[in-house]
Amino acid sequence: MKIAIVGGGAIGLLFSFYLNQHHEVVLYVRNIQQRDRIQAKGIHLTNHQGSFSTKVEVRLASEWGKGGEDLSIICVKQYHLQSLLENKKIEAHHPLLFLQNGMGHLEYIDRLNLRFVLVGAVEHGAYRTDDDSVVHKGEGQTRIAFYKGADQEFLDTLIKPFHQSFPFQKEDDFKEMLQKKLVVNAIINPLTALLKVQNGALIENPHFFQTFRELFVEIKGILRLEKEELYYQNVVEVCRNTSQNRSSMLKDVEEGRPTEIDAILGYLIKQANEKNMQAPLINALFHLIKGNELEKGGK
């Protein structure tokens, strides 16, 4: 299978490295410097087993849509989706897999005349150390579900070769899958970013844990979660299993990059407003993160 991977961040590099073992990968990146570096040196990945390299074809993101790939995996952050997709003439039948955090990206997908769309929730821990290098720190899995259209044979062709090396888990309910990831992101990301702590501190420090629980109560009310204990235990388990990890939002704040707070808490605020519900803690965290971005020269 020929696969386009759009986005040269940590997730784009991670997926390019592993999927290139069994498929033909074309990585699309935003700038010439990254393209030239990967062309010259390949992609370097470090995990608990050591350091490895692979050569992949790499092009500029402006060229995406012209390569005739069988599938495009969209790995850019949600705030880059509009600039990536606007004015693109994507063929309606071309399969796309979206790997954004939150659930706000579903609105972008609905604006496109697409017939075959998958969405995923990435549970791996990874961070980029250079234009061509990624550290695979937390080995998990990628949950994947159909959003529009369905072709089980196509999906099996994509994921079956990676049963052990880079596992995928097919899910029947895309909404529940994305909501579980949203709840995790909505609690762990803003709290760790503001408190500047590793994930595990949120459940180890009783004062942080109190806010953790209060935030979950607001979120479950807005989303009207029916399996609230399942969602709650999932967040606790993620904190425990990634206790030494620094969240992606914490890294964004530390490095002065825009965060995905609009895609995560912004989505929940919109849902609360539509339901005439109050969300004081979510609103406070949202504006603290946005204020932090503004202080560092963001928007």
UniProtKB/TrEMBL annotation:
The keyword NADP applies. InterPro entries: 6-PGluconate_DH-like_C_sf, 6PGD_dom2, ApbA, Ketopantoate_reductase, KPA_reductase, KPR_N, NAD(P)-bd_dom_sf. Residues 174-292 form the Ketopantoate reductase C-terminal domain. It catalyses: (R)-pantoate + NADP(+) = 2-dehydropantoate + NADPH + H(+). Pathway: Cofactor biosynthesis; (R)-pantothenate biosynthesis; (R)-pantoate from 3-methyl-2-oxobutanoate: step 2/2. Residues 3-146 form the Ketopantoate reductase N-terminal domain. Coiled coil: none annotated. The keyword NADP applies. Its EC number is 1.1.1.169. GO terms for molecular function: 2-dehydropantoate 2-reductase activity. Pfam families: ApbA (PF02558), ApbA_C (PF08546). Keywords: NADP, Oxidoreductase, Pantothenate biosynthesis. SUPFAM superfamilies: 6-phosphogluconate dehydrogenase C-terminal domain-like, NAD(P)-binding Rossmann-fold domains. It comes from the Bacteria. Belongs to the ketopantoate reductase family. Catalyzes the NADPH-dependent reduction of ketopantoate into pantoic acid. This is 2-dehydropantoate 2-reductase. The lineage of its organism: Bacteria, Bacillati, Bacillota, Bacilli, Bacillales.
